[in-house]
Amino acid sequence: MLVSSLVLSSLGACYVNPMKLFQSIGGSGCGTSGPASCQNTDTPPAASSCCFESPGGLIMQTQVWDTNVAGSPEDSWTIHGLWPDNCDGTYIENCDPSRDYKNIAELLESQGASSTLEFMQQYWLNNHGTNEKFWEHEWATHGTCYSTLDVDCLPSDSPTGAEAVAFFETVVKVFKTLPTYDWLAQAGITPSYSQTYSLSSLLSALEAASGGYTPALTCSRSHTLSSISWYFNLKGSVIDGDFVPINAPTQSSCPSSGIQYVPKEG
């Protein structure tokens, strides 16, 4: 099942044609008929890196369960980021300091992405500082490393920062397809101060709800559930391509039993 074809209902969203999300920059023009990133090392990349994500074709959507962040929704995990790891699991960061844009909120509003900003203000929260600093960090550290978001891949008349706007719209789009809280709750797994869970029960619930895909769960030293990573390959551009879900290439760090999933207190 491809992210671009999912019905996004769990967080109050509905299906939106991904191309329409990026009308302000004219879409990528890539299509999705080419090879998926990282799927076959014998398959040469598309003629242009604008339409084939490389080298960061192992894409990880990471969510956090922060229990002490003011305003964090009690019934949803929140966004950490969308990271382009290399196909072998290594990664690069901070790929273009010349595009370390500041004031992401103003950038989004000025380019017609106010609804994305409103969603980020609710579901993309910083537990150590301002949300703005967190968004700036995620773009500069990870967003600038997507080959398909290079400025040369955009229409020549695109406004400055259009590729960053596309990045944030895509992060939100992908996150909306992964309602981790709802999927766990459907299996009777909800935050509790007294109940603990096994790793197998958590993964089974998430695999069943996601269509059979295994994420990677992270726990703190106290065996408390803290984050989850969902993995994808990409067909086409980050702007409007298909995110193809895959099983996590790494194991969860949580213990096999006694996992705490505690309520939020923020």
Structure description:
25% of the residues lie in helices and 15% in strands. The protein has helices at 18-21, 104-110, 114-123, 131-141, 162-176, 180-186, 199-210; strands spanning 58-64, 78-85, 196-197, 216-219, 225-235, 242-246, 259-260. Strands 1, 2, 4, 5 and 6 form a five-stranded antiparallel beta sheet that branches. The protein is α+β, with helices and mostly antiparallel strands and 266 residues long. Helix 6 (180-186) packs across helix 7. The longest helix has 15 residues, at 162-176. Residues 4-25 have low confidence and may be disordered. It is globular, with a radius of gyration of 18 Å. It contains seven helices and seven strands, in the order H-E-E-H-H-H-H-H-E-H-E-E-E-E.
**Number of DSSP E strands:** 7
Query: How far do the termini sit from each other?
Result: 35 Å
Helix percentage range? 10-25%
Low-confidence stretches: 4-25
Radius of gyration: 18 Å
Order of helices and strands: HEEHHHHHEHEEEE
Overall pLDDT score:
89
Biggest beta-sheet profile: 5 strands, antiparallel
- Total of helices: 7
CA-based shape: globular
